[in-house]
Amino acid sequence: MSNQRQGMFRPALIGGVVAGVLTAVPLVNCLCCLWIIGGAVLASYLLAKESPVSLTSGDGAIVGVFAGIVAAIVDAVVSLPFQALNQQFIQRFMEQFSQFVKDMPSGWERWMERGTGEMSIPWFLLGLVISMVIFAAFGALGGVIGASFFGKKNPPQVQGTKDETPQNPSHSQP
């Protein structure tokens, strides 16, 4: 497995980038958890394709965790330009929601004004750490799924190496 761990970087990077970009794009990101699992399955597939031996579920989980962490970083970076769009969407949603719900908490308008401001670096980093943990968990799940689908390798058949022990026909077993 130590040889496989060296080869996990590229598959995890590819699977994580694909999942991170799909998770960050508005409207496509509604399938966020599915994209993370799919990116980890892709990473397991790529690892199995490059590996000469069968993958274990542990190998799949490890490459999936790495893919999830990469996806969280890519998601955080790619989604930055979409923050203003997302905040406007949330503000319009809350305004429409307040028309139908009469028991909104007092001062919710101030909360929305405060919430639509600039994002600070500590909040960004906290969100990144939380995303890394969640994405790593879903990545491990996807990696195990990918290893179960793609990780089995048939041992190579070597021709001409039959067991050549003489068999006595009188001692044959059914």
Task: Describe what you observe in this structure.
The chain is mainly α. The protein has one domain (about 1-100, about 130-155). It is about 70% helix and about 0% strand. It contains seven helices and no strands. It has helices at about 1-5, 10-25, 30-50, 55-80, 85-100, 110-115, 120-150. The two termini are about 40 Å apart.
List its traits.
174 residues; mainly alpha
Counting structural domains, the number is 1
Query: Could you describe the largest sheet, including whether it forms a barrel?
Result: none
Name the beta content range: under 5%
Distance between the amino and carboxyl termini: 40 Å
Structural class by sheet pairing and helices: mainly alpha
H/I helix tally: 7
Number of strands: 0
Overall pLDDT: 81
Radius of gyration: 25 Å
- Indicate the low-confidence ranges by residue numbers: none
The best one-word shape is elongated
Listing every helix as H and every strand as E from the N terminus to the C terminus, the arrangement reads HHHHHHH
Q: Helical residue percent? A: 55-70%
Question: How would you briefly describe this protein structure?
Answer:
With about 170 residues, the protein is an all-alpha fold.
Q: Topology of this protein?
A:
Elements: H1 2-6, H2 9-24, H3 32-50, H4 57-78, H5 83-100, H6 108-115, H7 121-150
Helix pairs in contact: 2-3, 2-4, 3-4, 3-7, 4-7
